[in-house]
Amino acid sequence: MIHHADLDDYIVALPKAELHLHIEGTLEPELIFELAQRNKVSLPYDSVQSLRDAYAFTDLQSFLNLYYAGASVLITEQDFYDMTMAYLKRAHADGVCHTEIMFDPQTHTERGVAIETVFAGIAGAVRDMQRDTGLSSYLIMSFLRHLSEASAFETLEAALPLREAYDDVWVAIGLDSAEVGNPPEKFARVFQRCKDLGFRLVAHAGEEGPAQYVSDALDVLHVERIDHGVRSEEDPALMQRLIDEQIPLTVCPLSNLKLCVVDDMAEHNLARFLRQGVLVTINADDPAYFGGYVADNYRAVAKSLKLSRSELAQLADNSIVASFLPIGRKAALRARIRAMAQ
Ligand code: HPA
Ligand SMILES: [Zn+2]
User: Which GO terms describe its biological process (predicted)?
Assistant: First the structure.
């Protein structure tokens, strides 16, 4: 027992960056109900418990249906602020020192919410949190891959006038939502435009989709980091490339379990990736839906995969290396981790 408490403290004390986090996936059922009341939005659930009971997923799409329904209560800037601040406080309690937060403007603009409202609410919370605690955040504006290339371009054009006002936080572009049948090629041109504009690029690949989507995200979209990527293991040449080029994977263990990407945490390939030298990181993805925040994810893999303290420190170090932080801040955080790894 004492040993477990120690390990818990160690996980929380490690400086960590969270790099794969959908802000809409941090909406807890209690906040969904509160915002529904505030905005007079009706929900097809009569209680917090009945909503929580519906979180029994069989695959990515079964989750996405509920995730988009939950996000429908977000209307005002204050709503986006409150959601983001609740997440940041929770992450801070877990020992997160930096986050790179994905958000999906199309989920909101399709319902008539102005993109300015989305940016203002999320960035407002991020700036207040940085000022008050030092926890820093960057924003990754993500395109929904089940929607068209034209819709992604429209979203980019609508957001670009805001770039200067948010240049302290909005640094990257991502790609999420239903993977299979929506391959990287579909977004080659819009990602090229984002690259030309100087954005950092990431994409979900190899969660439910094949290893080929991971290769294509690298070669066709020119992303520098892969979200999930767990199916890369099916292609040995790709695995060697990930190791040689130290391409980061943002792995989300509890998400993989809840969406049936893996059947049992003890079979998760995270430990194999780590021990082969892949730059894997641990993240929560959609913590309100998958049963845990980032420290819960570290705890789950530490236990099921029997990770050592030095492996946990390696995972925290990887999260700093894989972040988009400036090198000076990376060096300072890595020195703190190194001191804890001895
Ligand atoms: O894990 C995910 N995969 C794809 N789309 C998503 N949108 C939120 N979370 C996810
Ligand atoms: Zn994700």
Answer: adenine catabolic process; hypoxanthine salvage; nucleotide metabolic process
